[in-house]
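TA notes, week 10

Several of you asked for a full example with nothing omitted. So below is the full record: structure tokens for the whole chain, then the designed sequence directly under it. When grading your own attempts, check the secondary structure regions first.
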């Protein structure tokens, strides 16, 4: 819990506000995979050739915590989350009679390319409830119907029933599309301990994509993000603008993380000898282990809820692989809006409902998790805040991440944006890809998010600490 992690450094009033918003108030979105994940080895068939020109897929932004792109399946357009922390293709379907999502649902009756396949029905238990789904085969396009990225007889899962509240009440998306680096999906254990499901060709393998990039734009409001597949992403490994980091995860986009610091204000190096960091496009915030939040407590406890001292906060630094990276306050602080009770007269309080007022405050962009990589130590998840400031290319062969600074418009740059160097309250550096000197406060660069719609990976939920869940240590096999 934050109360333990920060060791009482925050005032109780601010603490309770942050607990409510960042821990107790997040309806966790799951529905794609079991906590037990095992690599199935390399795919031996000849790989399909990938796109010869770039495929640019716009990701529509909802509340700065969900990004959705088009997915064309069986002649039907669905808004989906393209998730580097997921592995399968799973969609809500009209087989689910109780589902009440705000988006469209897949219907096999509307498709001319649907095949029952094995007709396998499986119930899998996820962090927030069971999901009953039916496996089938379909023709899918990554993007719209005009996309050249097509897979025929693609295995996918149709949700038939589930006990996951968030996909009925809060979601704007109709599916989650896994962008894992393996050639095959990992085995998923079901409630039947004698059976596992998996071994299917992954979507990226099926469409011949060996590299793709993800970046989220920065501007006021809810700017778009971009998923780009094709030659531009393929060439990043040779581009001097990028820092190149080998992937150490068997199935996750995980890299080695060391030397955690905060300008000497951290209490200790929580990544000594090492941590692991998973870069996940489907996670709304940054998830950090308890030990790291304790080490960073002297800094996080100084965040002014009214956002007045952000320019004086230090950068958080660490190494990914052999490369150094920086999280300035514009990345590790977010604005959130919640509701608190207004002061009322005794008479009004006795005979009427409490009056609420909206309050926007600055809070750390962290969630607390307890996950351990077998060989590399405590696990971080670098989610959407990281991808707003770092243009990241995910390379499947050889397995690596290529990371550059991102401009506000999502172009890779060798030069940092102005947020990375502040003097007093104003920056004296130049924004990447702009001319002239730009002065801007840290607060002007913050993202405003609605934590009620935030997502985390299903496999991370059992290790999360929330107002209702103390969490348990989750072990990952890498």
């Amino acid at each position: 819990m934050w109360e333990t992690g920060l060791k009482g450094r925050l005032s109780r009033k601010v603490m309770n506000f942050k607990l409510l918003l960042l821990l107790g108030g997040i309806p966790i979105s799951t529905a794609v995979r079991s906590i037990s994940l095992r690599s199935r080895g390399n795919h031996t068939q000849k790989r399909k050739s990938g796109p010869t020109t770039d495929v640019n897929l716009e990701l529509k932004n909802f509340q700065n915590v969900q990004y959705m792109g088009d997915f064309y399946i069986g002649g039907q357009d669905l808004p989906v989350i393209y998730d580097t922390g997921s592995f399968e293709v799973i969609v809500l379907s009209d087989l689910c009679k109780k589902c009440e999502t705000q988006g469209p649902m897949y219907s096999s009756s509307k498709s001319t390319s649907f095949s029952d396949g094995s007709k396998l029905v499986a119930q899998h238990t996820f962090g927030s409830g069971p999901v009953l789904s039916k496996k089938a085969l379909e023709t899918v396009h990554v993007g719209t119907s005009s996309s050249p990225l097509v897979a025929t007889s693609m295995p996918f899962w149709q949700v038939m029933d589930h006990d996951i509240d968030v996909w009925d009440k809060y979601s704007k998306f109709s599916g989650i599309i896994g962008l894992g680096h393996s050639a095959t999906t990992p085995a998923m254990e079901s409630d039947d301990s004698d059976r596992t499901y998996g071994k299917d060709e992954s979507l990226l393998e099926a469409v011949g994509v060996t590299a793709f990039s993800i970046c989220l734009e920065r501007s006021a409001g809810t700017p778009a993000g971009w998923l780009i597949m094709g030659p531009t992403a393929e060439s990043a490994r040779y581009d001097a603008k990028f820092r190149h980091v080998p992937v150490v995860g068997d199935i996750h986009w995980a890299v080695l993380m060391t030397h955690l610091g905060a300008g000497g204000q951290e209490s200790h190096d929580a990544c000594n000898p090492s941590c692991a960091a998973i870069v996940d496009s489907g996670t709304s915030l940054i998830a950090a282990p308890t030990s790291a939040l304790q080490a960073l407590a002297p800094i996080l406890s100084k965040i002014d809820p009214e956002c007045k001292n952000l320019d004086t906060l230090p950068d958080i630094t660490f190494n990914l692989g052999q490369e150094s990276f920086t999280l300035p306050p514009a990345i590790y602080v977010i604005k959130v809006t919640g509701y608190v009770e207004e002061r009322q007269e005794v008479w009004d309080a006795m005979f009427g409902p409490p009056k609420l007022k909206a309050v926007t405050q600055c809070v750390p962009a962290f969630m607390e998790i307890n996950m351990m990589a077998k060989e590399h130590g405590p696990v971080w998840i670098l989610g959407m805040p990281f991808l707003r400031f770092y243009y990241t290319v995910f390379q499947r062969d050889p397995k690596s991440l290529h990371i550059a600074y991102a401009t506000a418009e999502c172009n890779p740059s060798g030069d940092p944006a102005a947020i990375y160097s502040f003097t007093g309250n104003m920056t004296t550096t130049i924004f990447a890809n702009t001319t002239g000197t730009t002065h801007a406060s840290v607060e002007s660069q913050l993202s405003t998010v609605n934590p009620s719609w935030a997502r985390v990976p299903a496999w991370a939920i059992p290790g999360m600490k929330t107002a209702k869940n103390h969490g348990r240590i989750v072990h990952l096999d890498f």
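Residues 12-24 form the longest helix (13 residues). Use that as a sanity check on your answer.
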